[in-house]
Amino acid sequence: MSLSYPAIMGILNVTPDSFSDGGKFNSVDSALKHCEEMLEQGADIIDIGGCSTRPNNAIATEKEEMERVIPVLKALRMRFPDAMLSIDTFRKNVAESCIFEGADYINDISGGLFDPEMLPYIGENHIPYVLMHCVGTPETMHQYSLGGDIHQTVMEFFMQQCSVLESFGGQQIILDPGIGFGKSLKANYALLSHLDRYRHHEYPILIGISRKSMIWKLLGQEADLENGTTILNALAIMNGADFLRVHNVKNAVDLKKTLNFAQQSE
After folding, report:
1. CB-based contact 49:9 (threshold 8 Å)
2. Which structural domain, as residue segments, surrounds residue 133?
3. C-alpha torsion 19→21→22→28, nearest 10
4. How far is Cα 163 from Cα 169, in angstroms, rounded to an integer?
């Protein structure tokens, strides 16, 4: 993959219950249309998710996740044969089925913790893999509020999980600090402001802060989540983020173009 960073990963939730856009794109036709819009707006990767992990939400079964993701993935691969497609899953069986159907990346919010078969499968097959810092289980992960030396906590997790993945042959690793997952408000902003403090082995870093509660928790319930997302994405880019995972692709692409032009004009 050769892209001018930061690469923009557009979110395509094919679920009825995702926190921001649940139910909007959970049919094949609506998913195709939204994917086409994001690609036209400049998305480099489309990240397809079929299992919401929003707080206090029932976790979809593996069967439900498969039934949501596979038909959409097949349709997208047929309509957009050259598109880069990622699957947001923590289940090895879902990952394997999706790679078979033409997915390019696996984006695992558990960093390999929730399914012990995930890292061996990813490593042995040399699959591009987003490894996110995580604590707890799918049911409890949002009950944590980690603080303290959050950079050391995240770095130790990356070192441990990358070592396991690399031992199976994993090479194409992208690190996600898991902003908004089990961390205090201060810890979330600390991670965003000091990306290089947990950049293990110089692996690229993905930041996913789109429309998250850290915006309104700081600015108030009436905060404009799109505006807040753009502000935080700007901070992420200026601090060296390599990938931005977003709902609003156009805003992210416009931001990237603006910052790149400003930096080149110095």
Report:
1. no
2. 7-264
3. -150
4. 10
45-49 β-sheet, strand order = 173-176, 129-132, 105-108, 84-88, 45-49, 7-13, 243-246, 206-207
User: For residues 62 and 93, is the Cβ–Cβ distance under 8 A?
Assistant: yes
Amino acid at 73: L
Is 187 among the domain residues? yes
Answer yes or no: 24 catalytic: no
217 catalytic residue (yes or no): no
What average pLDDT does the structure give for the chain? 92
* Residue 2: per-residue pLDDT: 55
Answer whether residue 93 is part of any domain.
yes
**How many structural domains does the chain have?**
1
The domain that contains 72 carries what CATH number? 3.20.20.20
Q: Which pTM does this prediction carry?
A: 0.93
The residue from 92, 183, 211, 212 that is catalytic is 212
Other CB atoms within a 10 A radius of the CB of residue 224 amount to 12
State pLDDT tens for residues 93-112.
Answer: 999 999 999 999 999 999 99
Active-site option among 91, 183, 211, 245: 245
Domain assignment of residue 2, yes or no: no
